Amino acid sequence: MKKLLIGLVLCGGLFQAQEAKVLTLPEAIEHALQHKAEAEKARLNIKKGDAQIAEVKANAYPNISFNSNTTYNPLLQETVLPGEMFGAPGQQVKVSFGQRWTSSNMIQLQQQLFNQSVFTGLKAAKSTKEFYLINAQLTEEQIIEKVANAYFQVYQAEQMNENAKSNLKITDQTIKIIKGLYDAGLARKIDYDRVVVARNNVNSAVQQTSNAVDLSENALKFMIGMDMNQEIQLPQQTFDPSVLGYDANIDDRTEIKLMNKQLELLEWQKKASEAEYYPVVALSANYGFLGQGAKFPWWHGEKDGVYWSDLASIGLNINVPIFNGFATKSRIELNKIEILKAEADLRETKLGLDLAHKNAITLLENNMTMIRTQEENVNLAEEVLKNTRSNYQYGLATLNDILDAERDLTEAKNNLTKAKLDYKLAEIELLKSQGKLRTLNELN
């Protein structure tokens, strides 16, 4: 039974291992763009923009409505008229006007013939749709940036864990050397105990870095909207530095395109305010039936004392603004102020993006230099550890020298891992400053 249970556990572990997904950066980005709430809301905003555009366009279409009004008059209004009108001179006669029942059923049509505000709104509709599209692109780029940062954080955690495991192997090798010397009477018991303590410390570091890997993977899975139970693996080549060009056109940045489109919308808003100076011309038309009688009119005719008649009217309405207390002038002035503020923001944003681009280049170059330096340090630290071990066997070095050499090698490996991460983060900043974040799908 125990063997069966152990076999099931091993098979289960093998099954889980087979389910682990090798996740590249483009796949992580695509998954985030398909499943993250921010991306979904950006797509919904585009649909919202379509609905808003349709709402604006509706003002230019004919407005048709039907109105039915049926009234019962329990008391008819009476008017006193001279009796001469009814052949009764010298008397006053009360006459009731109207019928007990009246039913009015009208179809009404209204059509804007000239309304500058409507025309301006129609022209602004295209800019509004483009604004939502650019805003969605900016949202996607922000998601790409977050995913890329989280992705490389996972790789750093994995690399740090590999470094710790490698250091554990190195410490185990040192233990074997000291143990052999101790058994031969060439090393002290305290030396052997010290390296065992060092191995235990490194083993603890392995566990800590393993936990860090789990935490960083969970953070990445949350960032891309992936099931937390899904196991993932990162390709080894993911962390290699990429060769990038340094040229950039700030006007290609999505942020600049969005601000330019916002300026365009502000210009349309100013034109909409100016449209208040123009007259408004509208056509109206009505057609319907009026029923009157002593009975409910809908299903009765003349034989029941209900009389129906149709009626129609066509009208042309012209509204010419003359004076509104300078309200329109004030609104136009406010629109101009908003445009000037947006232009100031645009200039400041361009300056900031140019600064970010230059800083990204500097960071990228410095981090590449740091990577080369740390690679040399790792090779040198490995050589120092090898020579120190050899010297220890001949009594030319102390145990402290070996432990110091191991710590130096550990630090050099971790520094190299951090330098590579810093390079990839600087790479993301450079691509962002160039407006080329989407090319991350092609870098790995």
Automatic annotation (TrEMBL):
Keywords: Cell outer membrane, Coiled coil, Membrane, Transmembrane, Transmembrane beta strand, Transport. Residues 371-429 form a coiled coil. InterPro entries: OMP_efflux (IPR003423), TolC-like (IPR051906). One of its GO terms (molecular function) is porin activity. GO terms for cellular component: cell outer membrane; efflux pump complex. It is found in: Cell outer membrane. Belongs to the outer membrane factor (OMF) (TC 1.B.17) family. This is Outer membrane efflux protein BepC. It comes from Chryseobacterium taklimakanense. The gene is bepC_1.
